[in-house]
Amino acid sequence: MKSIPLASLSCTDKTIPLVGFGTAVYPLPLQPSQTMKESILRAIEIGYRHFDSAAVYVSEQSLGEAIADAIQQGIIESRDQLFITSKLWCSDAHHDLVLPANLGLDYLDLYLIHWPISSTPGKYEFPIKEEDIVPMDLKSVWKAMEECKNVGLAKSIGVSNFSCKKLQLLLATANIPPAVNQVEMNPLWQQKKLREFCERNDIHVTAYSPLGANGTIWGSSQVMECEVLNDIAKARQRTIAQVCLRWVHEQGASVLVKSFNEERMKENLDIFDWKLSEEECEKINHISQRKGCRGVQLIAKDEGFYKFSEDFWDGEID
């Protein structure tokens, strides 16, 4: 079983495994999936210890059940051997609604604000209807997130899809700074400016869509079809996925992978006993950059708070 390295998180004595197993599938399911539960259980057997979920993924129940089965079957001794992340959906991003969903667990290791917007309470939808999008009262929502940490519902708290500007706004009023910013990151969207900002402010970066999220409403095959990455993979006798994941790892970020194929689950952990050369890294550094998730699914066209992708990402889009 592969040993996965750890990184320390700020404002806590906790660590985060540097590879996590993602549980988002698209289109988003309407109810919990037996396939999801079985895949999570197999991932635990293979050696994954970090699992990423969210209220809108409808994966939290499956994750909770898989953890209970893993303990019952003796695969792990206790829930404490796992690192569980979940995310606050936009419809719950209101001060009085900020509570982690019930996974059948006593606590979350990490609880994130999923997006820097709010929407009409009670509607777990993606995309969000434009009439349901409202500006977030970030200060009050974060105060409620801090309360989740203070009472032990979450060991660490953080954000997802936050730009440098939005992180600055949060840091200006936060009593507990965010431990993590989970963002899109891959060789075709390297996030250098954001990573530098997060490093200066002791915010750990977790990368989602490390392979370009082909098959989602925002993703494409451009990462997996990139000629530079393909050439490196062939020369190293690795998969393109392994080259991408290794590159993210070498940037100091944790990375979320998702596959229900057992061989690919194993391949995605086989990134720690080799390194990219300086020449290979330089080639990757010169890949043309293109953001995949531009946020258009969350942007109201007429009445809403964010009029354009550039506004949503505060210009950090090209």
From TrEMBL:
Residues 20-287 form the NADP-dependent oxidoreductase domain. The keyword Oxidoreductase applies. Substrate binds at residue 114. Keywords: Oxidoreductase. It comes from the Eukaryota. It comes from Actinidia rufa. This is NAD(P)-linked oxidoreductase superfamily protein. It holds the Pfam family Aldo_ket_red.
